[in-house]
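Good morning,

Attaching, inline, the backbone tokens for the sequence recovery test we're adding to the shared suite. The designed sequence is right after.
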């Protein structure tokens, strides 16, 4: 079992009733042993100790690249559509409530509908309505999922500039890259261009999303300093605990896990009444 911390991404926007958050979990050195931490990532008061802050946040790093984030991420996947209309003002208010509660890391993507735009509105609200030190704890993690076309420097640069503009930030805290077609080796070119943008100060950390173990190893062998790989992990999908966890343990790449709570909830047992049975028949 990898000793790297496994983070949990939470769905932030619910179309109906909200779900109570459980403590985040992480892998320990002992096989399949779990430990819990407070859901609150960073305290909004001055009473939190250094030790408490350490347990609530974690640093992803590779070489000189590093970023401290919450152990629990606010996932914005549900803004991508399919769950009903997203009210912009309500969404931004929800983001402010999460950040005020200490859950100050947001995970989004270029294709999650208006997610990046919502973050841009949110961070401008923070700039106007919260003290300057509040911004120090905020993190906006986004993803870039391009079509498998030729990855030129200008193409990559233009795509990243779009996200920077939508999120209204000069530098992306983390850019998580995904590639659809492994038979096309263009993902290496894309990551090299992303690394160049990192060196220019337009991206703070380069990361991956949904890459397999073989390609992660190839990427690291090409000297690309990725800090994390976001993958699905739950009690019904434990694939990362196989080869991926071992490679991450050896290289220090962290795993950010998605759907860990939603796919780990035991399905409800439904009691079907006789009238419902008649209706079904």
């Amino acid at each position: 079992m990898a000793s790297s911390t496994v983070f949990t991404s939470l769905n932030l926007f619910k179309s109906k009733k909200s779900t109570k958050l459980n403590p985040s979990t992480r892998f320990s050195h002992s096989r399949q042993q779990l430990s819990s931490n407070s859901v609150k990532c960073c305290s909004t008061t001055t009473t939190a100790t250094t030790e408490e802050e350490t347990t609530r946040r974690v640093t992803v790093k590779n070489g000189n690249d590093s970023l401290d984030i919450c152990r629990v991420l606010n996932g914005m996947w549900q803004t991508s559509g399919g769950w009903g209309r997203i009210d912009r003002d309500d969404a931004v208010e929800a983001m402010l409530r999460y950040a005020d509660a200490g859950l100050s890391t947001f995970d989004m993507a270029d294709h999650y509908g208006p997610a990046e735009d919502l973050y841009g509105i949110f961070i401008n609200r923070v700039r106007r309505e919260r003290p300057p030190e509040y911004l120090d704890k905020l993190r906006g993690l986004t993803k870039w999922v391009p079509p498998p076309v030729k990855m030129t420097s200008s193409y990559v640069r233009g795509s990243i500039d779009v996200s920077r503009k939508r999120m209204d930030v000069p530098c992306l805290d983390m850019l998580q890259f995904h590639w659809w077609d492994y038979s096309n080796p263009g993902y290496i070119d894309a990551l090299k261009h992303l690394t160049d943008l990192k060196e220019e100060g337009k991206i703070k950390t380069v990361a991956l999303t949904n890459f397999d173990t073989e390609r992660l190893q190839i990427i690291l062998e090409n000297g690309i300093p990725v800090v994390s790989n976001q993958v699905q992990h739950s009690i019904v999908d434990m694939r990362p605990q196989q080869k991926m966890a071992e490679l991450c343990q050896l290289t220090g790449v962290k795993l950010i896990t998605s759907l860990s709570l939603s796919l780990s909830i035991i399905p409800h047992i439904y009691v079907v009444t006789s009238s419902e049975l008649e209706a079904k028949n």
